[in-house]
Amino acid sequence: MVKKSFDRTYYDNEYYDKRPQIDPYLVYILDHYVLSGVEKKTILDAGCGSGVYVDFMRSRGERVFGIDFSYDAAKLSGQMNASALSLPFKNESFDVIVSIHVIEHLSPDDIDVFFSECRRVLKKNGLIFIMTPNALSPGRFILREKWFPDPSHINIFSPFRLGRVLKKNGFLHPRHIFQLALDKVKRTDKDIVRYYGLDRIFRRAPFLQDMLFYWLYSTPLAYFRDVVYTRAQVNK
């Protein structure tokens, strides 16, 4: 039996207090593989949460709109309170849609509605970028309920399944591997991640974190990291 999506009141201020902030590796990918290529873009952050990535993309000079299903998230971010299943925008309004940790909260039927809405509001040759927990991660099977311990995660994708769903809904060329140039990633020693107990080692030798994440982003090992990062192009 498929679990139903959680009510919007579940996603309150306490929920967003637990969310991680800016990820320097994700920032690099957004800068070089999503936001590059067009001098000035109109971007939708669908499920913007507390708004940290809206602020980041605006700091790059982009025109960014954010929406979130949660009342509290909309207040925190200063963005629009709206559902990703009924985007309050005209057809072909955006060059790029970014959706970070959203689709795992949607039922299979709602997934198709979401991608249909994304396709509708994207311009010709527009891009979508999705970030979501990875069903193929070894951590999922090792840690079990401690792996992304969030009961509202009702729909977990592998890179392969996500690619199929994107193609089914009118998107082309899904990409899951992104080359990191570590000398260009703007990470400080404060950006140490809690990763399977390795953070103690990373604090002593931060370059080891960079090396690990290089392998997890830039090689086929990307198919087994904890999180799927996928970019695709709308087919219009």
- DSSP helix count? 9
What fraction strand?
Answer: 15-25%
What is the CATH class? Alpha Beta
Q: What best-fitting shape do the alpha-carbon axes yield?
A: globular
Can you walk me through this structure?
- The chain is an alpha/beta fold.
- It has a single domain (8-234), classed as Rossmann fold (3-Layer(aba) Sandwich), CATH 3.40.50.150.
- Helices cover 34% and strands 19% of the residues.
- It has a seven-stranded mixed beta sheet, sandwiched between helices.
- The relative contact order is 0.16.
Question: What is this entry, summarized?
Answer:
This protein is α/β, with parallel strands linked by helices and 236 residues long. It is built from nine helices and seven strands, in the order ααβαβαββαβααβααβ. α5 (108-121) links the parallel β4 (94-100) and β5.
List keywords for this structure.
single chain, 236 residues, alpha/beta, Rossmann fold, 7-stranded mixed sheet, 7 strands, 34% helix
